[in-house]
Specification:
Blueprint: H1 3-23, H2 25-31, H3 38-61, H4 68-93, H5 102-120
Helix pairs in contact: 1-2, 1-3, 1-5, 2-3, 3-4, 4-5
Length: 127
C-alpha cells in the first residue's frame, strides 16, 4: 500500500476520533462503558487534541517524498496505533472499560497495519 493512501486513511480516522474526544468527551467515555468523571473528560480532551495533531501531520505528510521524514511519520503512526490498541485491549480485557471498546481496538489495529504496510514500501519509488 502506498504511503499517500495509508496516511489519508490514518488522517481521517485520527481526525474523526480526535474531534469526537474534543467535542463530546463524556459521550465517548460512556461509549467505552466508563463513567464520565471530570478527570476522564480532561484526559479525553487532551488525547483528542493529540489525535487531531496527528491527523494534521498525517495529512501534510501525504505529499512528502520517500525518505527519512516520511518513514519517521509512518513509524510514529504505527507505534501510536499499536500502543493505543494494546492499552484499550488491556483495559477491556480487565474490565476497566466496557466491551464496547473492542471495535476501537480493531480500528487501532487496522490503522496500524495500513501504516505498517506503507512503511514497508516507503523506500520504493511508488510511494
Amino acid at each position: 500500500m502506498n504511503a499517500r493512501l495509508s496516511l489519508t486513511i490514518a488522517a481521517i480516522v485520527a481526525g474523526i476520533f480526535g474531534l469526537l474526544m474534543l467535542a463530546a468527551p463524556s459521550q465517548v467515555l460512556q461509549g467505552f462503558g466508563t463513567p464520565a468523571h471530570v478527570d476522564g473528560v480532561v484526559v479525553s480532551r487532551d488525547v483528542g487534541g493529540l489525535y487531531v495533531g496527528l491527523s494534521i501531520l498525517f495529512w501534510i505528510a501525504r505529499s512528502w517524498p520517500a525518505g527519512p521524514a516520511l518513514r519517521t511519520v509512518l513509524l510514529v503512526g504505527v507505534i501510536t496505533q499499536a500502543i493505543s490498541a494494546a492499552t484499550n485491549a488491556w483495559a477491556a480485557a480487565t474490565g476497566t472499560i466496557g466491551p464496547a471498546a473492542w471495535p476501537g481496538v480493531g480500528i487501532h489495529v487496522g490503522v496500524a497495519m495500513v501504516l505498517l504496510l506503507a512503511l514497508r514500501g516507503a523506500g520504493d519509488a511508488a510511494v
